[in-house]
Amino acid sequence: MSQNNSATAESAFDVEFRSVVKHFADVKAVDDVSFGLRQGSFHSFLGPSGCGKTTSLRLIAGFEQPDSGAVEIAGQSVVGVPAHKRPVNMVFQHYALFPHMDVAANVGYGLRQRKPRPDDAEIGKRVAEALELVRLPQLARRRIWELSGGQQQRVALARALINRPTVLLLDEPLAALDRKLRREMQIELQNLQREVGITFVLVTHDQEEALSMSDTIGIMRDGKIVQFGTPEELYDAPVNRYVADFVGESNFFSGAVASCDERGAVITTASGLTLAAPLSRLGGRLQPGSTGTIAVRPEVIGLWNKAAAPQGLDVARPARLLNRIYLGDHSEFQVEAEGLGSVLVRLPKHSTAGQALEPGDEVVLGWERSKALALADI
Amino acid sequence: MARARKWDWTAILLMSPSFAIFLALLVLPIIVVLVLSFGERAEAGGYEAAFTLAQYANLPARWAAFRNTLSLAPTGTILCLLAAYPLAYFLAVKASPRSKLLLLILVIVPFWTSFLIRTYAWIFILGGKGIPALLDWVGIPDVRLINTPFAVLLGIVYAYLPLMVFPIFVSLEKLDKRLLEASEDLGASPWATFRQVTLPLSAPGVATGCMLVFILLMGEYLIPALLGGGKVFFIGNALVDLFLQSRNWPFGSAVAVSLVAIMLVTVTLYLRLTLNRRGFRDQSMV
Amino acid sequence: MIDPRKEFMAQLRRYQMGSVSRRHFLGVTGLGTAMAVMGAAMPGLLPRKAYAGNIGDKVSLATWPNYHDPKDFEKFKELTGADVEVSVFGSNEEFLAKLQAGGTGWDVFVPTNYTVSTHADLGLIEPLDLAKIPNYDIAAQDAKLIGEGTVKGTVYGAAKDWGTTGFAVNTAKVKENPTTWKEFWDLTRGAYSGRVTVHDYQLTTIGNALKYYGYSFNSNDEKELADAEKLLLEAKPHLFAITSDYQPAFRNGDAWLGICWTGDGKQLHRDIPEIIYVLGKEGGEVWTDFYAIPKSAPNREGGYALVNFLLDPAVNATEVQFHGQPSTDSRTNKLLPPEMLNDPIMYPAADLLSALEFGSAATFTNPARAEILARFKAA
């Protein structure tokens, strides 16, 4: 990421970490992390639980202080500054709305903490505006427990935005919503971010959520950022198997690296199969003798009836169809391929080849070598 | 509306044992006491059937006991609350999970020994060879602690502390700690957070603790007898004397009925007040 | 000079050892419900029964604090196989109130002389079957002391012991050497304000306030009682405590002067020699405690067996040496060490004794006196 942003001035970062380290007892929750988030961008931290993404968020919020390194918000160091004095606000995982206050009291809470405290008319006006922003103007007098999950989500947003923070932090904000509502809220969050122009930092373990909303994503593992980039970069040019696994779906065929040059790598699988693929643009070279992986996206793989298989495929293996899952606009096929094991294939609805296939059929699968990626197996 | 009249036999069957216990242990004794309170003292003590309001007319004779109880019981409740809240707060919010268990046990452990033994220990601590001797040693002579209202209040706070600590602890423990972070995140200082979030959300525990302690204090007689040297006189002491010394059951019953009536009124008022205030506070937050 | 820390520890030890009776404060609580089951843990299994007849495995005794040697109950258990279940009370009113309320389960209790007739009139106790108490030899008793055990010619109470009500003085602190009730009450309101205890008991506290004016200990005269009440109300702010459990206050050094019964005076003097026991020159109270059997006794035979055992002169002598109250039984007195018989606390001089009065039943049951004490305590 530093290459991408090196041209930009330091002050253009709303949030910047430099070599930040945070321990909890013996565990390094955040391990020498550095990044900068451009002003007005939508950034996500993506990773499994325990990867350090939530701790990073809490370091920004001020609930944790770094053991070492620098944390800056809008160009100002905030090391040692308590949470209540930072120009950031958070939407908590389960919203953390105050149960003893109604909607308006929750939304206005941040304003009432200001010194000097704005007068009641001003607070009322700003609360109404904030509720308007999240499209809940009619619910000001409702009690929290009378609201649906989606409504609570919006109240939490309004409450966090009312102080016009420099950065809005979102800790798994959509995790508690059902799938359909989650889709809606994703779009709404994006719209809202564009509308208010504030830097949003989202923590999530849902790659689809991160990919669909973010300008930049930091993929984390064991307290470190494995890759930092745009969704496209992460999807098309993962630095290693871990990222490829986390972003989208892939079939992985690993084995010993037989050879590697700037055009690609050759890997010999345990079953003796030799597979070749170009290197990932951002991934770097593989060491011959080490373990490497050929990653193939399910939609890149073709599937044909044994008799109808085209000639001249870069990779073609006989296989047996195990299962077929109909998913509306596309279908997923699980096949057992000789030498490759279980492989996932995704074909569009109107694929002529796909329509005729039934579980138990003998098939051929294949892909173009250029569409696969050779990745370090870490 | 139409189905409101329908009997729910399962519920009735399930409720009947507790209802029977309620009737036998609570309602019947109160009825007995009520009946006795309109009677007369028999010549050699006890009860003689009559219908007279003389016992109630005689209530001012125990004015001092009512005055002591009605002043020391609320004072004791408030002191208990002041001592218990920080302790409960520390236990629920600040203490690490491991030390929390240990500290909770430490709060409970004294209650494994007899209440009398513990109160007697206070007689010794507050008596002439206890704290006053130490004070004398460091040059503060002639301090009297035992058999004073102070000693009674101390005994009350000591004895009732856990009853106050536990409801508050439970309400603070239930309190979602993310609410505190949310408040801090929104710009509230720790004290502002305590005032606007912690305190209102622990109010049910405070209300429960205060009620428990107050109701029990209204009937207290042992602590004033032991730590007050018989000089700090509660309604409970008046009742013990009336039933066991004067054997004036009708007058004792009248005093008891008055005590129950005072308690009903204060508890009702208190509940109204706390419930209303909480509603009021919610509205006024904006 | 005593090292205060050593003294502190000695006092603590004394508390722990129980010479400041744990049972005692159960008595003052007003609900002496604490039960102490004496004897071994396996009732009726091992011991052989030397007594005729089956008296069951438990006899229930309601008595006063510090009033029996627990070893004697162990002996009783060895002889009969029955445990003695002891409950302790602090006043005669309590005995009466509990018996009136019913359901006590007591087989024996220990009323004081002036309450025997009340119990008998109310039908709460039964005439004693003296054939079942061969150890109670009326001829050997001091006739002056046992009269009120007999009501209208029928014996209801077998005398246990007797005593007086005077006052205890800590002579290390109180230098005036008071010998009269007048001096007692004047010192209370004067030099020793805050250092005086009086009984939580109308009979003795009001009775000895009456003696200040030279009235009868038993006066039920309205005007005289009003004088006594005035004195008590004046004295109230000067009192350390109103309690019948005053030994701890004296042992702690908190109280220096206080109304006191013989046994307590004896026990205090034994442990702290500078505390002496004084009988007021104007008079005061002499009393006798009796064993009596409630009509409601669930184990009547056991009750008789226990009374008979405790009145055995040899057993009674160990009891007397334990509780420090003089015996009415000349056979028991013969078994006591001479220094006890010569002890002026237990056996005061004849001229002091002659001024004393027995409390009367009318004094005991007078509701006006009960009200005065209640007003005094609540003031």
Write structural notes for this entry.
The complex is a heterotrimer of chains A (378), B (286) and C (379). Chain A is an alpha+beta fold and 378 residues long. Chain A folds into 2 domains: 227 residues, 3-Layer(aba) Sandwich (Rossmann fold), CATH 3.40.50; 139 residues, RNA polymerase II/Efflux pump adaptor protein, barrel-sandwich hybrid domain (OB fold (Dihydrolipoamide Acetyltransferase, E2P)), CATH 2.40.50. Chain A starts with a helix and ends with a strand. In chain A, 44% of the residues are buried. The N terminus of chain A is likely disordered. Chain B is mostly helical and 286 residues long. Chain B has one domain: MetI-like (MetI-like fold, Orthogonal Bundle). Helices cover 74% and strands 0% of the residues of chain B. Chain C is of the alpha/beta class. Chain C folds into 3 domains: 46 residues, no CATH class; 166 residues, Periplasmic binding protein-like II (D-Maltodextrin-Binding Protein, domain 2, 3-Layer(aba) Sandwich); 159 residues, 3-Layer(aba) Sandwich (D-Maltodextrin-Binding Protein, domain 2), CATH 3.40.190. In chain C, 41% of the residues lie in helices and 16% in strands. In chain C, strands 7, 8, 9, 10, 11, 12 and 13 form a 7-stranded mixed β-sheet that branches. In chain C, helix 7 crosses helix 8, helix 8 packs across helix 9 and helix 9 runs parallel beside helix 18. Chains B and C meet through helix 3, helix 5, helix 10 and helix 11 of B and helix 1, helix 2, helix 4, strand 9 and helix 18 of C.
